Structures are given as structure tokens and as C-alpha cells.
Automatic annotation (TrEMBL):
Protein name: tetrahydrofolate synthase
Lineage: Bacteria, Thermotogati, Deinococcota, Deinococci, Deinococcales
Domain called Mur ligase C-terminal: residue spans: 277-377
Annotated family: Belongs to the folylpolyglutamate synthase family.
Keyword terms: ATP-binding, Ligase, Magnesium, Metal-binding, Nucleotide-binding
Coiled-coil annotated residue ranges, if any: none
């Protein structure tokens, strides 16, 4: 069994929130997380694009910046980026081999091992700062074993309610766990939930309060953003699409300001960021396919708003999702822009919902495709949307780009 096969097999042991095992594992590895500064980026949606943009800004400032994100789309090594470059899989596997004995001895979970692996990799390559995307929640997430110099909470929506709680207030309290008393934090959270973050004693700057964003859409080219904050004013461009993409870029800019970056680094980093699979338009056999990981109602609503902003009417939609999501809420948000829906499932995700069951939730015309490839081949000319599970997007994207995807079962 290869190291990656061993790691993937640990997905079946599930998620066990708590910091004890990952703290013990990091300590057994010599506490590699102390070799660099850490920024934690949590929130329900928008974590990845915010973290990716901030890492690009840090890189543009001259820092040797690392980026950890999860889950990956197509390749496991996507989770580990240093100076804008994915760490080679051979390097990742070799580092995993070195930490495997300690991980096995401590009974660490899949995600705990992946976080420790990121820390080991980033320390070994001499990263000066690491932007770490939080996995689930915050308070008990494995990334929270690190000590951040800055904490970011993008926003809060209902998702993973069986673990985090069934109200926005309960979920916000879990997300607030990545903040530190007296430590700097930035957030895009709605005003009524701000007191929950501030109860941590952190020094919180919020969009709409300490900071103000002015966004001018440039359509398919992204947006022009003006950010005004106590740290100064800066104007920059982002290629991220939609109002939520611009807001995530603006929040990354505010985080960069709190880290002391100048306007030139913010502009250069924001302009150069790429975030695959999230409002990403790709050409394929004379068609245009827009990929987006809209897997919960809040994300689906943001996708719909972005399509309206881009002047897109009703389009064919390929959709598949995990069975444990608020599927009725997602469907309600998707239907206004769907001319028809092609239902399929990620082949490698045991959590994927049965397309026949999904069909009963839709009032617009639906059809069933046994595989993502079959769904793509049934698309008419013009623009179509593929959305839902990131695992589905991760299987569709290599079909569009010609990359080689993974063949391992995906749970996390």
C-alpha cells in the first residue's frame, strides 16, 4: 500500500473534532508549525478564494508564502502551494512517509494528518508565512492547533449543521474559535453576528464597519475594487467573478493591510490570483462550461446572483451533490437560472446523492446521466453550468482540460 493509499483509507474513520491528537502529532514532529507565521482563514463559503488571494498578495510582497486549502479538486498535491507553485507529489509523498509512523501511533484522522503534513512541508521548504484554510468549523478544527498572527472569518451560513449546530449563531461561535484574545482579525460576517466574534476579545475589523468596499463589475473580467480602512485606501482589480468573488478579494486585501502589506503588493497579488473550479469558465468542444462549487444554499444563491450580474439568462445545468446537504435549499436557488438540469454524481464520492432522488426535488425539466462524462456529452452548444459538490467539479474539470484525475475514493 502506498503512502497515499494508506492516507486515503483513513477517510473511512470519519471526522472527530478536537485538537488533542493533532497537537500531539505536531509535537512528535518537532512542532514544524513554529517555523513560519500562520494566517487562519475560516468561514462557511469563500474561504478558498480569500486564502488564495491573500497568499498571492503575500507572495507579491516578497514573502515566501505557502497556501493550504481543502478539499482538492483533481490532485491531492493541490492542497500544498509554496510561492505560487504546487508542491510536487513526490515531495508530498516522501514527507508523508516520514510522518506516517507518528500518525499511526497517535491514531490521527485523515485531516489531522493532512494539516500536519502541510506544516512539515512548509517548514522544510522554508516558508515564511502560511495561509491555512480552515476545514470544518474552527474551534475544534485541526488547523486551529496553529497559533495565528491573523484570523479571517469570511462569513457564516447554514452548512454542516449536524456538527456545528442548527443556527447561524451557533455556527458563528464555532467559526469564532480561530480568533485569539487581543489578536488581529478581519471578517465579512453580517453585522448582527459580529458580537459573537468580538466576545473572543480579538481586535476585529469588519467589512461595512471599520472597512468599506466599493466594487465596480467588469463582467467576465472580474471587478475593480476600492478598499478604505484605518490602514489606508487602495484600489485594485480581481479576476474573481461575481459580487461574492469581489467581496472575498476585498476581504483578502483588508487582511493584507492588517499584515502590513503595501498597496503595490495588494494590487499585484489580487490581479494574478486564480481559483480553479469556482466560477471558472472553460472552453470545451465548441461549448463554454462554467464550473462552480455551489454546494449549499448560500453558495447557490451567490452563483445565481453572479449569473445575473454577468447577463446570463437560463442555461443548462449539470448538478450533483452530497446527500447530507440542504438539497431542497440548493435546488430552490438553482431553479431560477436552470433551463434544464442534468443530474449525475461524482463517481469517486460515496457521499454523493442518488440522481433519481435529486430529480424529485426539481420542477424544471431533468434528465439523468450515469457519469459526469455522459452529462458533459449531453450539453447543447453555448454556455452551461456545472455546480454542486466540489468532488463533482473535480471530476468534470479534467474532462474539460485533458488533465489526468485521481482514481481514489473521496470522502474529505
Amino acid at each position: 500500500m502506498t503512502n497515499l493509499d494508506w492516507l486515503y483509507a483513513r477517510q473511512r474513520f470519519g471526522i472527530h473534532p478536537g485538537l488533542g491528537r493533532v497537537q500531539d502529532l505536531l509535537h512528535a514532529l518537532g512542532d514544524p508549525q513554529r517555523a513560519f507565521r500562520t494566517v487562519l482563514v475560516g468561514g462557511t463559503n469563500g474561504k478558498g478564494s480569500t486564502a488564495s488571494t491573500l497568499a498571492a498578495m503575500l507572495g507579491a510582497s516578497g514573502e515566501r508564502a505557502a497556501l493550504f486549502t481543502s478539499p482538492h479538486l483533481t490532485r491531492f498535491a493541490e492542497r500544498f502551494v509554496v510561492s505560487g507553485q504546487e508542491v510536487p507529489l513526490e515531495t508530498v509523498s516522501a514527507a508523508l512517509n516520514r510522518i506516517r509512523p507518528q500518525a499511526e501511533a497517535l491514531g490521527a484522522t485523515f485531516f489531522e494528518i493532512v494539516v500536519a503534513l502541510a506544516c512539515r512541508l512548509f517548514a522544510e521548504v522554508g516558508a515564511e508565512v502560511a495561509v491555512m484554510e480552515v476545514g470544518l468549523g474552527g474551534r475544534l478544527d485541526a488547523t486551529n492547533a496553529l497559533d495565528p498572527v491573523l484570523s479571517v472569518v469570511t462569513g457564516v451560513a447554514l452548512d454542516h449543521t449536524e456538527i456545528l449546530g442548527g443556527t447561524l449563531e451557533l455556527i458563528a461561535a464555532e467559526k469564532a474559535g480561530i480568533l485569539r484574545p487581543g489578536g488581529p482579525a478581519v471578517t465579512g460576517i453580517v453585522p448582527e453576528l459580529l458580537p459573537i466574534l468580538e466576545r473572543t476579545g480579538a481586535d476585529v475589523w469588519a467589512l461595512g464597519r471599520e472597512a468599506r468596499l466599493e466594487v465596480v463589475s467588469r463582467g467576465w473580467q472580474g471587478a475593480d475594487i476600492t478598499l478604505e480602512s484605518p490602514a489606508g485606501n487602495v484600489t485594485f482589480q480581481t479576476p474573481l467573478l461575481g459580487a461574492h468573488g469581489a467581496r472575498n478579494a476585498g476581504l483578502a486585501g483588508l487582511a493584507a493591510q492588517r499584515l502590513g502589506l503595501d498597496s503595490a503588493a495588494i494590487r499585484a497579488g489580487a490581479a494574478g490570483v486564480r481559483w480553479p473550479g469556482r466560477l471558472e469558465k472553460l472552453a470545451w468542444h465548441g461549448r463554454e462550461v462554467l464550473l462552480d462549487g455551489a454546494h449549499n444554499p448560500d453558495g447557490a444563491q451567490a452563483l445565481g446572483a453572479a449569473l445575473r450580474e454577468l447577463g446570463v439568462g437560463q442555461v443548462p445545468v449539470i448538478f450533483g451533490a452530497a446527500g447530507d446537504k440542504d438539497l431542497a435549499g440548493v435546488v430552490a436557488a438553482l431553479e431560477p437560472f436552470a433551463s434544464k438540469v442534468i443530474l449525475t454524481r461524482a463517481r469517486l464520492s460515496p457521499r454523493a446523492a442518488d440522481p433519481q432522488m435529486l430529480a424529485r426535488l426539481f420542477s424544471v425539466p431533468t434528465q439523468i446521466a450515469d457519469t459526469p462524462a455522459e452529462a458533459l456529452n449531453s450539453l447543447p452548444p453555448g454556455l452551461s453550468v456545472v455546480c454542486g459538490s466540489l468532488y463533482l467539479v473535480g471530476e468534470v474539470r479534467p474532462l474539460l482540460t485533458g488533465e489526468v484525475g485521481e482514481a481514489r475514493e473521496r470522502w474529505q
